[in-house]
């Protein structure tokens, strides 16, 4: 990975002393002082040269330094505690016009205007995740409300997610990080697993040892990277269910065919029913929950293979080519009734 040599700066530890940045318990400030860890965090978040980055809660700037060391295009940091403003100034100078500091509360802060003003290019939702990132080592007590705010914005494609499927990398209390990524049938599976996995694919990256922080936190810390899903899974299931019951008492293959444009309907219906090992001639009321889960998983994959497919509606019969060019259209949502 290309790196960007910063002009000489005091060591991070000296920095904290020079600017008298004693960690405040009230803001749960545990600084990451080990540059090997901050570099690992930035690398594993996937921040690459040319990236646009927003860092939440930079504090004395350990992660910020590691971000700037990459040949990133622009980094904006949002910090609540004014004491860090003078400490971040030398980094702004060293950054050669790439670092911008904002004073504010991340829970209320609207990131979209920053990238709009900077004329950051927007990406299609169906493209690969762009080289744009949100990252932060946050106080634990704001990590939970913040992730709920971000998941909501992600599902509505608002805020930073108006720019595409921007990945988000955050630190959490280890136990919470494991629950967010909790797999089905494990003890880690909890409400937060479902809330997170509904709109994103969270991945547990690594554990940060307590000794890497100053002061050492009482609990271990885990890093999670969230990549927004193309479509929330529940919406995929809702759409499959709706088509499954398209015709009363007709064979299932006739119902499923209505999910696809005519020229691909036979092939994709066959693929979906074979994948889920469903008899094409049975009727919908004989379909089990496991079969529905497999059909939904297969349809989700097909939607990734054929951009625009999720937006296809039997009633409108719009060609896939047309739908493909509307990647940011928000799909129609159907309830289960
Ligand atoms: N990122 C730095 C590091 O890793 O060394 C500092 C980490 S410290 C755990 C959390 C930082 O988030 C502090 O600088 C704190 O002032 C800041 N912070 C706390 N609440 C915040 C909020 N609501 N919005 C923005 N920053 C916040």
Tell me the layout of helices and strands.
Elements (H helix, E strand, L loop, with lengths): L11 H7 L12 E2 L2 H11 L6 E5 L5 H8 L4 E6 L4 H11 L4 E5 L8 H6 L14 E5 L3 H17 L11 E6 H7 L10 H9 E9 L4 E2 L6 E8 L4 H12 L7 H5 L5 H14 L13 H17 L14 H5 L13
Parallel strand pairs: 2-3, 2-5, 3-4, 5-6
Antiparallel strand pairs: 1-8, 6-9, 7-9
Helix pairs in contact: 2-3, 9-12, 11-12
The structure holds S-adenosylmethionine.
The ordered string of helix (H) and strand (E) elements is HEHEHEHEHEHEHHEEEHHHHH
The separation of the N and C termini measures 51 Å
How much of the sequence lies in strands comes to: 5-15%
* Weakly predicted, low-confidence segments: none
Radius of gyration, Cα only, in angstroms? Answer: 23 Å
Largest sheet, strands/sense/barrel: 7 strands, mixed
Distinct helical segment count: 13
Task: Name every ligand kind in the structure.
Answer: S-adenosylmethionine
* Overall body shape: elongated
The total count of strands amounts to: 9
Mean pLDDT: 88
Specify the helix fraction band: 25-40%
The secondary-structure class comes to: alpha/beta
Neighbour order of strands in the largest sheet: 4-3-2-5-6-9-7
């Amino acid at each position: 990975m290309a790196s960007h040599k910063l002009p000489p700066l005091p060591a991070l530890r000296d920095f904290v002393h020079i600017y008298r940045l004693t960690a405040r318990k009230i803001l749960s400030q545990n600084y990451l002082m080990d540059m090997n860890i901050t570099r690992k965090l930035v690398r594993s978040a996937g921040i690459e040269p040319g990236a646009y980055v927003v860092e939440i809660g930079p504090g004395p700037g350990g992660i910020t330094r590691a971000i700037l060391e990459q040949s990133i295009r622009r980094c904006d940091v949002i910090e609540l505690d004014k004491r860090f403003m003078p400490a971040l100034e030398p980094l702004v100078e060293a950054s050669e016009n790439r670092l911008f500091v904002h004073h504010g509360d991340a829970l209320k802060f609207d990131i979209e205007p920053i990238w709009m003003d900077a004329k950051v290019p927007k990406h299609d939702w169906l493209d690969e995740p762009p080289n744009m990132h949100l990252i932060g080592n946050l106080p634990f007590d704001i990590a939970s409300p913040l992730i709920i705010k971000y998941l909501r914005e992600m599902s509505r494609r608002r805020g930073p997610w108006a720019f595409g499927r921007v990945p988000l990398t955050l630190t959490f209390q280890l136990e919470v990080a494991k629950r967010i990524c909790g797999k089905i049938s494990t003890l880690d599976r909890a409400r937060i697993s479902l809330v997170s996995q509904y709109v994103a694919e969270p991945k547990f990256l690594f554990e940060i040892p307590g000794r890497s922080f100053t002061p050492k936190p009482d609990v271990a810390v885990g890093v999670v990277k969230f990549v927004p899903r193309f479509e929330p899974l529940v919406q995929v299931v809702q759409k499959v269910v709706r088509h499954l019951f398209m015709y009363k008492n007709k064979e299932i293959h006739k119902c499923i065919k209505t999910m696809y444009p005519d020229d691909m309907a036979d092939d994709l219906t066959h693929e979906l029913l074979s994948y889920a090992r469903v008899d094409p001639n049975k009727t919908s009321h004989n379909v089990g929950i496991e079969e529905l889960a497999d059909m939904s998983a297969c349809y989700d994959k097909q939607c990734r293979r054929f951009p625009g497919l999720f937006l296809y509606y039997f009633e409108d019969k719009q060609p896939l080519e047309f739908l493909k060019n509307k990647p940011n259209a928000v799909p129609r949502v159907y309830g289960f009734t």
